[in-house]
Design brief:
It is a single chain. The protein is an alpha+beta fold. It has four helices and three strands; from the N terminus they run H-H-H-E-E-H-E. It has two domains: 49 residues; 64 residues, Alpha-Beta Plaits, CATH 3.30.70. Helix 1 packs antiparallel against helix 2. The protein is rod-shaped.
Length: 120
């Protein structure tokens, strides 16, 4: 990280030209805080991907599209990430709509790259 290198150079220059010997440990602490914040954000962002958590926004869209007309009800729904802007979904439905009708409703959701529909 560039910022920690800049802190180290500032500490060296402060010690050399101003005699501030305390600046090196202080910048070490600041640099470690910067790295800790970066690591925490990285863990938070990747945990959702690694644990295959669903995207609530896309799940709501799927529910609105499928159950919107009122003739179909979702029994089971799984949405997971395939790539940066691609998601897959398995939708299990009951009601009057067949698999082709559900697929055509879900075609409006551009984030879905792969859809499996099961009727009960």
């Amino acid at each position: 990280m560039v910022l920690t290198s800049v802190f180290a150079i500032m500490a060296l220059l402060g010690d050399r030209y101003l005699g501030w010997v305390w600046l090196d440990p202080a910048m070490g602490i600041v640099g470690s805080i910067v790295i800790a914040v970066w690591a925490w954000n990285l863990l938070r962002d990747t945990a959702a991907v690694l644990l295959d958590t669903g995207n609530p926004r896309i799940e709501r869209k799927v529910q609105q599209e499928v159950e919107g007309p009122g003739d179909t009800r979702i029994v089971d729904l799984h949405v997971w990430r395939l790539g940066p802007e691609a998601h897959a979904a398995i939708v299990s439905v009951t009601g009057n709509a067949d698999t082709h009708a559900v697929r055509s409703r879900l075609a409006r959701i551009h984030e879905l790259a792969h859809v499996t529909v099961e009727t009960r």
